[in-house]
Design brief:
By secondary structure, the chain is α+β, with helices and mostly antiparallel strands. It is built from nine helices and four strands, in the order E-H-E-H-H-H-H-H-H-E-E-H-H. The protein has one domain: Glutaredoxin. The protein is 45% helix and 9% strand. Helix 1 links the parallel strand 1 and strand 2.
Amino acid sequence: MHPDDLHDITFWYDPISPYAYLAFEQLPQALMGLNVFVRYRPVLFAALLKAHGQLGPAEIPGKREWTYRQVQWLAHREGVPLDLPTVHPFNPLPLLRLGLGTATEDAPGETNRYVTEQLLHHVWRGAGDPASPERVEALQAHLQEHMAQRQKPWSEPSSETVKQRLRANTEEALALGVFGVPSLVVGGRVYWGLDALPMVRAALDGDDWFHAGAWEAAAAVPVGVQRRVS
């Protein structure tokens, strides 16, 4: 891992994930004092799950309820506003495409921090229906105004250009080994989940653990038994 690579972070997210929202809110504090550049990349979480043959936590009874309880507790502990949406899970495609409609030609798969924040707040603040046509239309109008103020071109969310941006992001995420959101890619390594933020910070601070072979050894543990899930 080249030391210079550690200063470039890719934050893979889907606004459907409350952990992505909480990680986004805590990221500035986690990276405080460091000279880093964060790229925000929307990805379709459902496509990652499908590729790995998994269900999302909100699709598993018991785990679903625990997820909602835990994220509310974590938000309470950190002093971060979090309101559960009126329905969850929902189809996040319109939001992902709205975000990528703001992408620029030099970074076609990225949303800036402000746009990323708007997408996440749309879901996790206000206790509304994230898929409501009225709310999605209001968000689109707001983002269009944002782009106009910055004198940046806007791509229609329903355009093939935007759809291709999302497909390309999902394919790239899978190629990197991303299997869930949020995921932070630092120096070619994938750090998954809200609770990986301290680990990312340690890597950026040059903790010797990351150069002692433990990272590589984890991938070499043999599988003792493998269940077949019907």
